[in-house]
Amino acid sequence: MRATQMAPIAGLRPVAPTLIQIRNLKKTYAAGRVQALSNINLDIADGEFVCVVGPSGCGKSTLLRILAGLDDYDSGQVMLGTKTVSGPSRDVGVVFQQANLLPWLTVRENVALPLRVGGGRPDGADDVDRLLEVAGLKDFGGRYPYELSGGMQQRAGICRALVRNPRILLMDEPFGALDALTRERMNLELQRIWQSTGKTVMLITHSISEAIFLADRVIVMSARPGRVLRELTVDIPRPRSNDTIISHPDYPALAKEIRALLTGQGEE
Amino acid sequence: MSKPDITLAVADPTIESAPASESPPRAPRPVNGTLIAGLGLVALFAGWALAVRFLDVPSYILPSPAAVWKALWSGLAVSPSDPLGYYLPLWGTLKNAAIGLAAGGGLGLLLGSLMAESRTIEKLLMPYAFALQSLPKVAIAPLVVIWFGFGDGSKIAIAGLLSFFPILINSFTGLRSVDPEKIDLMRSLSASRFETYRIVKLPNAAPYIFAGLDMAVVYALLGTIVAEFLGAQQGMGVVITQAQAVTDVAGVFAALVILGAFGILLHGIVRGLEQRIVHWGNRGRK
């Protein structure tokens, strides 16, 4: 175990082309009176897992919504690959807070929803049953969301975001409503899914330990108006486990630094 | 909604004995709802029968339960095609009420949907909808009879008019009450407006629409009867006015019993449909 942790990091981090490029992004609310984002600059590489942490109301959800094409922005440039973001894209799957499943559809129907709306089944769409199996929901396809636990609901939410086989997964505090143990298990699952699919992930979280566990890079944002305070690379080899990560030599320093950045703003 | 209460009441002994020590302020003893209602009904009939007998109430004011039962039976124990039985008039009334409900409810759902989807249409139509609702619609009935005549048309029109509003306002409210995150989901999938309506908004509005339907069913029946009072060849309204004309009060009561029973039956059907269709019910949101 020790040996793998000491393995040269550079080999694990192939240089990948930039997939998401954000330049001088500005966003205001309430007719310009409330500045939500001030001058965000951020590059995310293809296949990278990025976690965004920041105090409540720092605009991290706004940033995610802009990338998802759900909100517009005032100025700056937001690119996915070579395309400027101007609305929802098939290259992006969104995982919402609290699963956001439709209670009147079965789990399978929920996961298959992206295949029947917005212009039907796209090329390269993933197989619903295969995804359900990967997520450990094989026997629950015919159930309704209210028959599932919170963790299972969110796994179904992740399947739904993956079913169009997007390149990018945007996750807005996906595990915030789950209990601590379920959350740890979900982090492990998400790492597995991410490693097997090679998606680019941007995940928003309030949890420092979740951010370090999942991310290649943690983006710490400031209180409103939101801007990128610091980017911290997490050089802890994968697959990471909940038991071993806290004993990794880098972990305490990372956690301490993120905590200091967050509490330095008088907010947790 | 009364169903869970009943099952709770039936399970009473087990609930009572087990957690007696757990709840320091003793929980009130659960009551058996069905039993109470049954006893109440028996008491009502007994009081009614005794009052008529011992207070010498003339039968043209209040007939005895036995006289009402006799009138009821004479209307029921006949061939379905007997013009003196209840079956033909009941069929006529229910048919017109159903057609009126379908037309009024359908129009209500359509306009409610358009108003929910478009602020312009909402601004345009909402004042008229409220004006119509503020009007005692039964007062329009004579006018409707002039327009549509004494046939089925006026019955259907008034039933439709009365059932229109509850469906309109409830579907509008239900369609507007969608969780914004669900709209975001559909937007993130580039879903069309109609897809969002059909897959998210309409199912979301279903509990509201059923609540409106529950009201509308009764209103449709009410509208049909009122229209029949104003003039008709057949229908339960005609049965009532004919019995009234010869001060056959027991006959009037019998017709009211039939209408009451159908009111309860239709309410039960709507509830049953709702529980089947809106199966996620209150469990949908955590």
TrEMBL record, chain A:
Does Transport count among this protein's keywords? Answer: yes
Name the PROSITE patterns for this protein: ABC_TRANSPORTER_1 (PS00211), ABC_TRANSPORTER_2 (PS50893)
Q: Name one GO molecular function term.
A: ATP hydrolysis activity
Domain of life, per the record?
Bacteria
**Keyword ATP-binding tagged:** yes
SMART domains to which the protein is assigned, alphabetical? AAA
Task: Give residue ranges for domain ABC transporter.
Answer: 20-248
InterPro entries with a match to the protein in the record: AAA+_ATPase, ABC_transporter-like_ATP-bd, ABC_transporter-like_CS, ABC_transporter_ATP-bind, P-loop_NTPase
Instruction: Name the keywords, alphabetized.
Output: ATP-binding, Nucleotide-binding, Transport
Family annotation (CDD domains):
ABC_NrtD_SsuB_transporters
Coiled-coil annotated spans: none
The entry's family comment says:
Belongs to the ABC transporter superfamily.
Q: Which PANTHER family match?
A: ALIPHATIC SULFONATES IMPORT ATP-BINDING PROTEIN SSUB, TAURINE IMPORT ATP-BINDING PROTEIN-RELATED
Protein name, as recorded: NitT/TauT family transport system ATP-binding protein
Automatic annotation (TrEMBL), chain B:
**Cross-referenced Pfam families, in alphabetical order?**
BPD_transp_1
How does the UniProt record describe the way this protein sits in the membrane? Multi-pass membrane protein
> Does the keyword Lipoprotein belong to this entry?
no
Q: Which GO terms describe its cellular component?
A: plasma membrane
Alphabetically list the UniProt keywords: Cell membrane, Membrane, Transmembrane, Transmembrane helix, Transport
User: Transmembrane stretches, by residue range?
Assistant: 35-55, 97-116, 128-150, 156-178, 208-230, 250-270
Concerning Gene3D superfamilies, the annotation shows: MetI-like (1.10.3720.10)
Q: Where in the cell is it found?
A: Cell membrane
What the entry lists under PROSITE patterns is as follows: ABC_TM1
Keyword match Membrane:
yes
Q: Might you name a Gene Ontology BP term for this protein?
A: transmembrane transport
- Family in the record: Belongs to the binding-protein-dependent transport system permease family.
Spell out the protein name for this chain.
NitT/TauT family transport system permease protein
Source organism of the structure: Azospirillum brasilense
